[in-house]
Specification:
Elements (H helix, E strand, L loop, with lengths): L6 H20 L2 E13 L5 E4 L5 E9 H5 L7 E5 L6 E6 L5 E2 L4 E7 L2 E17 L2 E2 L6 E9 L2 E7 H6 L3 E3 L2 E2 L7 E8 L6 E3 L3 E10 L2 E13 L5 E6 L2 E8 L1 H5 L7 E5 L6 E7 L1 E3 L4 E7 L2 E8 L2
Parallel strand pairs: 1-4, 8-12, 9-13, 17-20
Antiparallel strand pairs: 1-3, 2-8, 3-7, 4-6, 5-8, 8-11, 10-16, 11-15, 12-14, 14-16, 17-19, 18-24, 19-23, 20-22, 21-24
């Protein structure tokens, strides 16, 4: 043996160790409170957690100030082993030994020290898909039958939640201003967050848009002259028209006849005789104009005296 062989290296190692010990022993020890994620491990097959479960716990950690300052999110995790779980209510203790921490840091306290959970058997069931629509079709039209493809989905979750569920719903299909059927692929969802859809989570929804069932005729509506130049006068023949409307029973019953305004647009129209200028009609959004009789009128435009 050569005790003095590589003496320089040995002395350097001893000096480094002494320096490290001095630095560590001289460093201030501090405590800090943290909120850390709760990780569930060894979850038994065929069981579901019923009700809300905390996703984080509070811990107090102790260690050197340098070590604590170097900790990154996720370095400290509380781990709960569920391999012994059974149906019904169970209480699991949570001790400092069940918290993962970096080297040189210790756990002083965990809160809560116990977590209660209710376990139920996993259940799967098929539920109908209820499609929905949003918006108002074009005046004189209404929403008819709604169909979803697929019409049912398979739902999985805790037994009691699955049994009380009645349907899955779709994201609304927008039918604003539509005059014909609208088809769109949308997302399927569940109102109960404890449930989940197994398989495809989208459906093709078809919304039938059809003409409203009732009609009403307003006779003798005066034809107004719009955008007539200030230096002109105009005569309209015939001076009135009949307007046929379509809408729901409620819309037609509430309709104010004065809200139906017939007119000819005389923008940039000069003096002269015009045999067939089209008649336009302003109507409320909830009713549609199906016919104007006559559809055009004769207009004589002269310079004003």
């Amino acid at each position: 043996m050569w005790p003095f062989r590589h003496l320089g290296a040995k002395l350097f190692s001893i000096a480094a160790a002494i320096l490290l010990w001095v630095m560590v022993s001289g460093e201030e020890t501090v405590e800090r409170g943290l909120r850390v994620p709760l990780e569930l491990q060894q979850f038994p097959a065929g069981l579901e957690i019923s009700g809300e479960l905390p996703t984080t716990v509070d811990v107090r950690v102790r260690g050197g100030s340098t070590a604590l300052s170097r900790m990154a999110p996720g370095d400290v995790v509380a781990v709960l082993d569920l391999r012994s779980a059974r149906s019904g209510q169970r209480v699991f203790s949570l001790t400092p030994e069940q918290v993962r921490v970096p080297f040189g840091i210790s756990i002083v306290q965990v809160a809560p020290s116990a977590i209660a959970m209710v376990f139920e058997k996993t259940m799967t069931r098929r539920l109908p898909v209820r499609p929905s629509a949003d918006g108002t079709p074009a005046p004189g039209y209404e929403v008819g039958r709604l169909e979803a493809d697929p019409s049912t989905v398979e739902v999985t979750g805790p037994e009691t939640a699955v049994r009380r569920a009645t349907e899955a719903v779709t994201e609304p299909v927008v039918v604003t201003g539509a005059r014909d059927k609208v088809t769109e692929t949308v997302t399927i969802g569940l109102l109960d967050p404890a449930l989940r859809i197994t398989g495809s989570q989208s459906a093709t929804v078809t919304v039938a848009v059809q003409a409203a069932p009732l009609e009403r005729t307003l006779r003798g509506r005066p034809v107004h002259r719009r955008n007539l130049g200030a230096t002109f006068d105009a005569q309209v023949e015939p001076a009135t028209v009949d307007v046929m409307l379509r809408g729901s029973r409620d819309a037609l019953a509430r309709l104010d006849p004065d809200a139906i305004v017939a007119y000819v647009d005389l923008t940039d129209v000069g003096a002269g005789d015009y045999a067939a200028l089209p008649v336009h009609v302003d109507a409320p959004d909830r009713v549609g104009v199906t016919r104007i009789a006559p559809e055009s009128v004769q207009v004589r435009i002269v310079r004003a005296k």
